[in-house]
Amino acid sequence: MAEAFLTGTDAPTGVPLKRRLRRAERARQFKALALILPLLLFLLFTFLGPIAGMLWRSVDDWEVGKVLPHTVAALADWDGKDVPDEKAYAALADDIQAARAAGTIAIASKRLNYALNGFRTILASTARNLKAAPEPGTAKETLGKINPAWGERATWTAIKGASGPITSFYLLAALDLTRNVDGAIVAAPPDQAIYRDLFARTFTISFGVTVLCLILGFPVAYLLAALPPGRSNLLMIFVLLPFWTSLLVRTCAWIVLLQKEGVVNDSLRWLGIIDEPLRLIYNRFGVVVAMTHVLLPFMILPLYSSMKAISPAYMRAAASLGASPVTAFLRIYLPQTLPGIGAGCLLVFILALGYYITPALVGGAPDQMISYFIALYTTETVNWGLASALGAVLLFATLLLAAVYGKLVSGQQVTGGMKN
Amino acid sequence: MDGGMVTSAPALVRFAGIQKTYDGEHLVVKNLDLDIRKGEFVTLLGPSGSGKTTTLMMLAGFEVPTHGEIYLADRPIKNTPPHKRDIGMVFQNYALFPHLTIEENVAFPLSVRKVNKAEAQERVRTALRMIKLENLAHRRPGQLSGGQQQRVALARALVFNPQLVLMDEPLGALDKRLREQMQLEIKQLHETMGITVVYVTHDQSEALTMSDRIAVFNDGIVQQIDKPNTLYEHPVNSFVANFVGENNVLAGTVENIEQGYCRVALASGGFVMAQAVNVTGAGAATSLSVRPERVSLLTDDEASDGPNRLRATVHNTIYLGDHALAVLAVAGNEEFMVKLQPGAHGGLSHGQSVSITFRPEDCLALDPV
After folding, report:
1. Do A318 and B141 count as a contact with CB atoms less than 8 A apart?
2. CA–CA separation, B201 and B41 (whole Å)
3. Within chain A, what is the greatest distance between any pair of CA atoms?
4. Is A313–B93 a contact, with Cβ atoms under 8 angstroms apart?
């Protein structure tokens, strides 16, 4: 009986033990859910929603389909081998006239201009010169006369490629890829291929900042964990001090310090170490220094919390067992800080990837990171598709990193054997 | 191991005039001179703050003596860093490395000594067999119970055959039954392996169970160092008498001393004959020490005047299973304990008037508390 009761197959009330447990737990689960619900909703609207929107925009392709609906329909069964037939030309002429009347030509021409440079002019001149609907059967001829580009296959491929409703155009562009006239994916022309370099630069700067933060933060975190509480609290205040001032102020402070007539250059010159002022800002050096400064606390705090959990008894035990201080550090202390190192590096790296203000203020043109271009496409050129695609690629790379980190950490399985 | 053999063995550890202060004002250890012989199990016993752990830490190399020298096998080690001392240590909270498996933990001292792999593996296996945890070799410390973790810590401290093994309250975190079992296991290991052990505890029964000799610490000074039975039966002062075992204290004044015995006038009136152990002379204040099991209870009709007979009032009796204690009010001591004969605890009631007696040789006149 007792055994049957435990396995839940023959419980006294006839209800399986598992279900009774679930029922008993339900009220508590509801309460827990109610507690996190506000945050959950907040995240849904402010975080998950925008991300979903961004991902959608990176593939969304509505402009041409909306402005030139008949053309898109006429091109649906075009094989793309030669210029399309008269029907497509007629549809285009209709669409252009309708769009001109509605004032929506610019919407389509902006999108088509991404696909084929100069399309804006083609469309504008056609709209201007197409006084009336061409006679039936002469559309091809009429349009060809207005602009010879209508006689080229590439023009029509561009329209077909942009006819939506979704496109891989932006995502490919974000990776320096494009489709050629035949629809195959090829490398983008060199003058447009800037994004891979940009991602590489973004990752290089972020990596450098992360390594610097680790090198500078590790000893500080160690000191924080090792000092007696009074002094460690004081030190902690210094570590957290940067959080009390705005990012903009801190970045501007670096400009004051590092500029040509700044504090650092003046001091070095006064000491006679240099004759000419060093170029410390509006270059890679300035970006890395300022970003490292801003991100350092994000490295120190996880390191500190992992070090705080390491009892000094471990190092003593290692020494009593014959390990020299270096061996004890490398084989006993360091491995136990790995989760902290991992968390700190991941945090700093991911934050650095998305850094915008600091590189924008203290970096030169060759030091701008991906976020600068995302902002540029969002606010200046209003190419939201490309901005979203760059964001999506960045998001994907970040998630990949987080997954790798998760894999590494779960393989670690660090459990506290000592509870004091 | 019998006492004679221990005495003839050479000193392995020698503390010579050791002093230690942390703040430059108070000495935590005052003038410690202590010899520990090879193969001996010596316990440093004392209340917290008595300097016993500091002494152990100086021996391990984690604290530096302010004054004096420590010799290990006739070699001064004051300036030798801990990792070069060849001393195994077991910590109170085990200090097993949480990121290593049991096997890797035990192999650690061998691998830092660059013992070759095959030999190390063999020695680790032997050590794990010794503590009967071969089947848990690949677990991590967090997955083991406290007792198992302590066994691993023990194996780790012994696997590299150190000259000396230090144990800092190793059983403090275990429950009573497990602690008693581990005491016997450690004692057994000590006897079969012939290792020298310095053991720190504040638990006097643990010290009595395990040690060849016990050094009782108080206030930075070794009060007495002796074999367990000597310590219990012949404490040299009130502190030792009170710290080791149950003890009844009666305050009085020495009237005279004759042939090792003295007549003591109790503060509450009456006289007691006692062994003069630590009294300065006639007129000096003294604390008399009587063990509960050395006191006999007399019912009223047996009572007659004689040496060392005192009137007492029963407060209550405490039943402890294997024996019972009567708590009495005797000569101003309201918690005078008497160990009762088996089955005798039923006959006493609260407020009952009784008499007690003890032999003069069982009553020690010590320094006043």
Report:
1. no
2. 13
3. 100
4. yes
Ranges of H-type helices in B27-96: 52-60
Task: Measure A324 CA to nearest chain B CA, in Å.
Answer: 6
| 3-class secondary structure, A3 | helix
Interface test with A, best of B72, B83, B102, B113 (most A CBs within 10 A): B83
Are B47 and B207 within 8 A, CB to CB? no
Tell whether B165 is within 8 A of chain A (Cβ): no
A-chain CB neighbours of B89 within 8 Å are: 316-317, 320-321
Interface with chain A: mutation pick from B97, B104, B159, B198, highest number of A CBs within 10 Å: B97
DSSP-assigned beta bridge partners for residue B337:
B327
- Give CA separation, B316 vs A419, B300, B324, B329, in Å: 41, 17, 11, 10
**B317 neighbors B348 (Cβ within 8 angstroms):** yes
B194 Cβ partners below 8 Å, 6+ apart? Answer: B39
Length of chain B counted residue by residue: 369
Helix axes A139-146, A119-129, angle to 10 degrees: 120
pLDDT in tens, chain B (369 residues): 344 444 456 789 999 999 999 988 889 999 899 999 999 999 999 998 888 999 999 999 999 999 999 999 889 998 999 999 999 999 988 899 999 999 999 999 999 999 999 999 999 999 998 888 889 999 999 999 888 999 999 999 999 999 899 999 998 888 888 889 889 989 988 998 889 999 999 999 999 999 999 999 999 999 999 999 999 999 999 999 999 988 888 888 888 888 888 888 888 778 888 888 888 878 888 898 999 989 888 766 555 666 788 888 888 888 888 888 888 888 888 888 888 877 665 677 788 888 888 888 888 989 888
Whole-angstrom CA distances from A300 to A247, A306, A326, B25 are: 18, 10, 22, 37
Q: Give every CB contact of residue B183 below 8 A, 6+ residues apart in sequence.
A: B171, B206, B209, B210
B113 vs A322: CB contact, 8 Å cut-off? yes
Measured in whole angstroms, the distance separating CA B227 from the mean position of its chain's CA atoms is: 10
Instruction: Kindly state the DSSP code that residue A191 receives in the 8-state scheme.
Output: T
Residue of chain B with shortest Cα separation from A412? B99
Helix A384-412 to helix A49-57 angle (10° resolution) is 120
> So what's the ipTM on this one?
0.81
- Helix boundaries (H) for A75-138: 86-102, 105-115, 119-129
| Cis status, amide bond into A16, omega within 30 of 0 | no
Q: Which residues fall within 8 angstroms of residue A146, CB to CB, at 6 or more apart?
A: A125, A126, A129, A130
**Would you tell me how many other CB atoms lie within 10 Å of the CB of residue B233?**
15
Which residues make Cβ contacts (< 8 Å) with residue A109, sequence separation at least 6? Answer: A119, A120, A123, A124
Q: How buried is B354 (Cβ within 10 angstroms: 0-12 exposed, 13-18 middle, 19+ buried)?
A: buried
In three-state secondary structure terms, B286 is: strand
- Tell me which DSSP letter residue A166 carries: B
CA nearest to B103, candidates B137, B78, B153, B139: B137
- The single residue listed with the structure tokens 């509960």 is B292
Q: Identify the contact set of chain A against chain B, taking CB-CB distances under 8 A.
A: 311, 313-314, 316-325, 327-328, 331-332, 335-336, 412-420
Among chain B residues, CA nearest to A325? B83
- Give the HSE-up count for residue B83: Cα atoms under 13 Å, Cβ half-sphere: 18
- Which chain B residues are closer than 8 Å to A316 by Cβ? 60, 62, 82, 89, 91, 95
Q: Contact A319/B81, CB-based, under 8 Å?
A: yes
